[in-house]
Amino acid sequence: MTTTPLPPSLTATLPGRYYTDPEIFRQEQDRVFEALWFCAVRAADLEGPGAFRTVRVGRESVLVTRSRTGELRAFLNVCRHRGARLCTEESGQVRRALQCPYHAWTYDLEGRLIAAPNLVKMPDVDRAAYGLVKVALREWLGYAWVCLADEPPSFEETVMGAAVERLGDAASIDRYGTERLALGRRISYDVRANWKLIVENFMECYHCATIHPELTDVLPEFADGFAAQYYVGHGAAFGEEVGGFTVDGSAGFGRLPEVSQDQDRRYYAITVKPTVFINLVPDHVILHRMFPLAADRTVVECDWLYAPDVVASGADLTHSVELFHRVNTQDFAACERTQPAMASRAYREGGVLVPTEHHIGLFHEWLTKQLAT
Ligand code: FES
Ligand code: FE
After folding, report:
1. Which of 103, 161, 355, 373 pairs with 183 at a CA distance of 20 to 30 A?
2. Cis peptide bond upstream of 292, omega within 30
């Protein structure tokens, strides 16, 4: 069955089946997650040659490795012999080569087939033709972004462009030096909701006054539900009494060295479609990566990134991390409360987008176009 995309509407949400139908989810895997740039792993998680991570991208398992010369490479995690999954662990480190656990075909860190039992007795097997299948990879903000498409879309336009769209220029995000920051905390959330509910929730702040008391204490303008309209480059201002972006408004860790005066004491939120959210505050960066696993299940991995000296000093990050951890918990609970109702006849025609949510309508427009490609 193919699904005819609906004409998008800026006042109505997508119909409920878009959040529950496995066939629509399959189309999204094909035309969204496997067609666009997908933020896979944090580069610093692969330390030294031979480090590897496996990550699910759409329906594929992708293997990201660090080569002998220190670059990141990505391959489909499939042995070319009889198709066994090459690496079954989520992460690990090999000395110089990846060996398939089935018949021991062995690939170097560039994906070349370098050994196989009795290969010399198999002159018909062209070693060069049976290297691992390469996947396009770009590094940005300290993360490896991969794309399974044969012809990946422009990284500059489709990924980096989101920051420009939100902040007004490319340099603004560069000032946070995200690729040089250290991981302070990582929390993984297993959310029983469709990935689009999570995107839609992140894109609006109509719910902030209702479910985010700690966040609205720090960012008072979010309390009136209109914050999503803040204009390009503006960011949401901290309350006057607020010391930092912390759960109780106590002081944070100052300001990252290149963050400008006008970025100070402000919060910026960027959505990089399809699966990434970035929050910028003066002393840290919060980066969410979503891994949609089923129509009703999405794993969200959230990294809190700080100046390396803050992390190295062993500073207590609790108050800092706790603010957005609470926001995440509140948001994901809301998404999980919404998910079962997507299958209700009450939501057959979808719901309503109030005026502050019209950019969610633009997200639906983008998605339905993508599904029609
Ligand atoms: Fe990998 Fe046979 S399937 S070596
Ligand atoms: Fe929220």
Report:
1. 161
2. no
Is 86 close to ligand 1, i.e. is its CB under 6 Å away? no
pLDDT of residue 3: 53
Q: What is the pLDDT of residue 8?
A: 61
Q: What is the CA(90)–ligand 2 centre distance, in A?
A: 30
Give residue 107's pLDDT: 96
Please tell me the distance between residue 79's alpha carbon and the centre of ligand 2 in angstroms.
Answer: 42
Q: Are the CB atoms for 206 and 13 separated by under 8 Å?
A: no
Q: How many CB atoms lie within 10 A of CB 57?
A: 22
Backbone angles phi, psi at 317, to 5 degrees: -95, 0
Helix (H) or strand (E) holding 75: strand 72-76
CB-hemisphere CA count at 13 Å for 85? 11
| CA dihedral angle for residue 315, residue 318, residue 320, residue 323, rounded to 10 degrees | 180
Ligand 1: centre distance to CA 67 (Å): 22
Query: What would the pLDDT profile of 140-162 be if each residue is shown by its tens digit?
Result: 999 999 999 999 999 999 999 98
pTM for the predicted model, two decimal places:
0.94
Residue nearest (by alpha carbon) to ligand 1 atom 4:
103
Mutate to test the pocket of ligand 1, among 61, 79, 122 (most ligand atoms within 8 A of CB): 79
Of all protein residues, the one whose alpha carbon is nearest to atom 3 of ligand 1 is: 82
Which pair of tokens denotes residue 293?
Answer: 């696993």
Q: Which of 61, 75, 78, 81 to mutate to test the pocket of ligand 1 (most atoms within 8 A of CB)?
A: 81
Question: Which residues does the chain have with pLDDT short of 50?
Answer: 1, 4
Residue 292 Ramachandran class (φ > 0 left, ψ -120 to 50 alpha, else beta): beta
How many A from CA of 131 to the centre of ligand 1? 12
Cα 96 to Cα 107: distance, rounded to the nearest angstrom: 9
The pair of structure tokens assigned to 177 is: 């030096």
